[in-house]
Amino acid sequence: MSAPVWRHVASFNATPFLRSAAEAATVPFTTQQREALASIATRVRLPSRKVIYREDSAANWIFAVAEGVVKTYRDLPSGKRSVSAFLFARDLFGLSEHGRYLNTAQAITQVTLYRLPVADLMTLLKHDGEMQLAFLVKVTYELRESQRRAILLNRRDAPGRLAMFVQRMRDHVDRSAKRVQSVPLPMSRSDIAGFLGLSLESVSRAAAELERRGLVKFEGRHLARIADPDGLAALVAAV
Amino acid sequence: MSAPVWRHVASFNATPFLRSAAEAATVPFTTQQREALASIATRVRLPSRKVIYREDSAANWIFAVAEGVVKTYRDLPSGKRSVSAFLFARDLFGLSEHGRYLNTAQAITQVTLYRLPVADLMTLLKHDGEMQLAFLVKVTYELRESQRRAILLNRRDAPGRLAMFVQRMRDHVDRSAKRVQSVPLPMSRSDIAGFLGLSLESVSRAAAELERRGLVKFEGRHLARIADPDGLAALVAAV
DNA sequence: CGTATACTTGATCAATGTCAACAAGGGTGG
DNA sequence: CCACCCTTGTTGACATTGATCAAGTATACG
Predict the structure, then answer these.
(1) Residues near B193 by beta carbon (within 8 Å), at least 6 away in sequence
(2) Which terminal CB of chain B, N or C, has fewer other CB atoms within 10 Å?
(3) Which pairs from B124-128 meet CB under 8 Å and 24+ separation?
(4) Could you tell me if B209 and B160 are in contact, meaning their C-beta atoms sit under 8 angstroms apart?
């Protein structure tokens, strides 16, 4: 729970809603702000598969991912599981409404989190406009991502959706490096299916199809190697 | 451009990310804040079908709807049109990235808007933490809505999607009144199709199906009358 | 090494997209 | 006020594609 841990959330990879083109793309926290955040945060380390919070339970904390991967999902009455998001380093999660979490959060890998009491964070935000802005930026970024995903989910074809997913995961590895070809997929096929709104079998078949087309090579269950970046990009763009 | 116009955006129908259950659900602006907003806003009145801004053009303004309905959409390479959102009174729009709008906004009905220069709004937000919070709340609300929509779009069946859509439109008429049965649908079938990720024909067939089941009666092109609220709710819930 | 879990592959069926023709509605001008 | 036209919406036939049910294979973990 030392201050430096907050380097992980020091700069959000985001451009705000409200920012002119001329300004820089990110809003980093100051050292002072990081310390303030650290002072209310608890560092927690959780094993793989651990449920972090459940849907409808009291939303007392906001979480930030320091290391590892988390998924948030909702179980639907039909028994299907809709995966809302995968969270990586620097991502915030813990979205609530009326004081209750809107979905369930579960660790996919072993994770390190920072847990912030909502009440304390609120107090902090009320006193620090700049930090509030950083949060506004972050949430706005999430909103854009969510909208983008919605557009892509309008695609009906399974291979196209999976291709889109692989690209998003690649961007998460390193947004700057264009030539990343080895993409870890820590989540299960079932999770991917839940995220893409496909059946488990369709994801499997779509993966086979992408391999057949020579776009992606799936090595083992948790690694995708992009064989033809341009071809993959073309497929994703062909909305 | 007088201060009272800002009553329209005075309270966002939202619960924030960061708010405990005990607190009130909305964050209204103070009179002073409304005046500050009014001082930088321009009131504009536009006819139906008018394009408000185009995708990729310079994002110099944020807009708030005072009256009427607006849609935002993106034209995809395939020629299809993905409708991102329908905006109603009090809604904000003008989401941008790198200083460019992410989609195109067009008036569906005759509309009255408040147009805020981004630079001025930024200055205002930097000086008023409370107002910033109101914006944070609003964006967070949008994020939740977007996630909810994503879950519903995972449904594959057209009648279910359309039922969900009718309910959302009903909620927009009056969130408090449970017994609203007459729901105006100002947008075209084509717009609905673009929003739901269905073909125009499927929307038409789904509408016929809902009528056949006795759930909704479509009177003319722009009015839906909910015949069986419970049945409709059951269909929507059957995700 | 064995068992449970995760994944793949196959066959069938239901549902939506697509192409096409047709009907209805709204607005305009005579 | 009516007729016309153009846009929007409806209905039908067919093909495509993913969901589902079912069986079999690979992998991870104890």
Answers:
(1) B199, B200, B202, B203
(2) N
(3) B124/B36, B124/B37, B124/B40, B125/A18, B125/A129, B125/A133, B126/A129, B126/A133, B127/A129, B128/A129, B128/B33, B128/B36
(4) no
Per-residue pLDDT tens digits for B183-214:
999 999 999 999 999 999 999 999 999 999 99
Choose the mutation target among B80, B123, B140, B196 for the interface with A, i.e. most A CBs under 10 Å: B140
Per residue in B116-168, pLDDT (tens digit) is 999 999 888 878 877 888 888 888 888 888 888 888 888 889 999 999 999 99
Count, in order, helices (H) and strands (E) of chain A. 7, 13
Query: Token pair for residue A1?
Result: 């729970």
- Mapping DSSP to helix (H, G, I), strand (E, B) and coil, where does residue A37 land? helix
CA pair distance A91, A83, nearest whole angstrom: 16
CB–CB of A62 and B143 under 8 A?
A: no
A-B CB pairs within 8 A amount to 159
Q: Do A22 and B99 touch (CB under 8 A)?
A: yes
